[in-house]
Write a structure and sequence with these properties.
single chain; two-stranded antiparallel ribbon; binds 3-hydroxy-5-(hydroxymethyl)-2-methylisonicotinaldehyde
Length: 284
């Protein structure tokens, strides 16, 4: 079994970051180690206030111990992190990498044209350093614009504009770009998947609902599916299907997250086909 390390905060309440990554990566059949970068009482996206315990000093303590014990990872998946954590994280991705380890960076810092509460205007340039050398980055349109120094547009990107944005994102030093929130028709929403040569698209029917935490669900499933050998296009398509299922399962008055828990059976099933066949063969 492959071992992935996710580095992001724990928001104790809010269905985001580590509390989403751990169950979803696990449901893909991938061992998920965690390194919490901070502990918050709840996320910052809509609650009026929160507590924040910064665990930056703990990152290098843990790193030293893992080096001493020879613990390494087949993949790293980063999400919401703050400025002081970028260098310690870059170091861990060097020192604790198994041969061929991949880096998946979700530059979780903004949505709907705005940076999340608490991030300074120059934070995107710090996050860009984490994108440099990443195997996969998964920005939404707002994060993508901030990363390359553009003004974010809420909608109305043409195909040419999307593809130019992707070129600029590769310019940050990312091998593959998965740009989410792409739409060329009002009734569909999807992502563009680029390896630097070819750009593919994946669309689903648009569900007209603002949902918090969908980026974390998407990135977690994407990272887990990649580790199970799916191509980037297939991992992106599965991630989008799971996000749609989670949104459909979320009660209309539930505002702070999506009920990804109800999509776990569908996700586990996506990776069950081989073992079910093996189990049946065994029985015969
Ligand atoms: O879902 C991204 C996220 C993660 N962690 C914290 C957040 C947010 C988005 O608002 O506030 C603490």
């Amino acid at each position: 079994m492959k071992r992935l390390l996710t580095i992001q905060d724990i928001s104790c309440v809010g269905q985001c970051s580590t509390t989403v990554a751990l169950p979803l990566v696990s449901a893909c059949g991938v061992e998920c180690a965690i390194l919490p970068s901070a502990v918050l009482s709840n996320h910052t996206g809509g609650f009026s206030s929160w507590t924040f315990a910064d665990l930056t000093p703990e990152l290098s303590n843990v790193e030293k111990k893992w080096i001493e014990l020879g613990i390494t990872f087949d993949a790293f998946y980063t999400g919401y992190v703050c400025e002081s954590q970028i260098d310690p994280i870059l170091s861990i991705m060097e020192t604790c990498a198994a041969p061929g380890a991949i880096r998946v960076v979700d530059p979780a810092m903004a949505d709907n044209g705005k940076l999340y509460a608490g991030f300074a205007d120059d934070f995107p340039s710090k996050m860009a350093r984490l994108c440099n050398g990443a195997d996969y980055i998964l920005p939404n349109l707002t994060e993508a614009a901030f990363l390359v120094g553009d003004e974010p547009k809420l909608s109305g990107y043409t195909k040419d504009e999307i593809e130019f944005l992707i070129t600029k994102l590769h310019g940050l030093g990312a091998k593959n770009v998965i740009l989410t929130g792409v739409s060329f028709k009002s009734d569909e929403l999807g992502s563009a998947i680029s390896d630097g040569k070819i750009i593919e698209y994946d669309f689903n029917p648009r569900i007209d609902r603002m949902s918090h935490g969908t980026g974390d669900v998407y990135a977690s499933v994407f990272a887990g599916a990649l580790m199970r050998g799916r191509s980037a296009k297939d991992a992106a398509a599965l991630a989008a299907d799971i996000v749609c299922e989670a949104i459909r399962e979320t009660a209309s008055d539930h505002w702070y997250g999506v009920s990804f828990e109800r999509a776990i059976p569908m996700l586990a099933n996506a990776f069950n086909e081989v073992s079910t066949t093996q189990a049946n063969t065994h029985k015969e």
